[in-house]
Amino acid sequence: MQVTPQVVEATRQHPSFVETGKRMLHAWNDGMNSLRLQKTWSLPSLDAPIAAAKFSDPLPIKGRKAEKIGRSPLLG
User: Fold this and answer.
1) How many angstroms separate the CA atoms of 29 and 51, rounded?
2) What's phi and psi for 18, nearest 5 deg?
3) Residues near 10 by Cβ (< 8 Å), separated by ≥ 6?
4) What span, in angstroms and rounded, lies between the C-alpha atoms of 24 and 30?
5) What are phi and psi of 2, to 5 degrees?
């Protein structure tokens, strides 16, 4: 949680970082929530800092195709 306020502050200081910062916090929160729901770790939620920063959900990534790994273009 020490990095969260720094990411929020960076989004305020650098408008071009807003979407990246939002994505980072949402991704971290999703990952921590998945661990918390499995009762594997005792991790804090980032829901409150995300709401306090008034971040919306991240915009969907457009025009980017999922990369296929382990597929040879030579296979028919």
Assistant:
1) 12
2) -55, -55
3) 17, 21
4) 10
5) -70, -30
26: which residues sit within 8 A by CB, 6+ positions away?
50, 55, 57, 58
Q: d(Cα 40, Cα 42) in Å, to the nearest integer?
A: 7
Per-residue pLDDT tens listing for the chain (76 residues): 588 999 999 999 999 999 999 999 999 888 887 776 666 556 677 888 888 998 888 888 777 666 666 766 676 5
Inter-CA distances, 24 with 4, 7, 13, 16, 74, Å: 9, 8, 16, 14, 36
Residues 6 or more apart whose Cβ sits within 8 Å of residue 73: none
Q: What is the pLDDT of residue 56?
A: 85
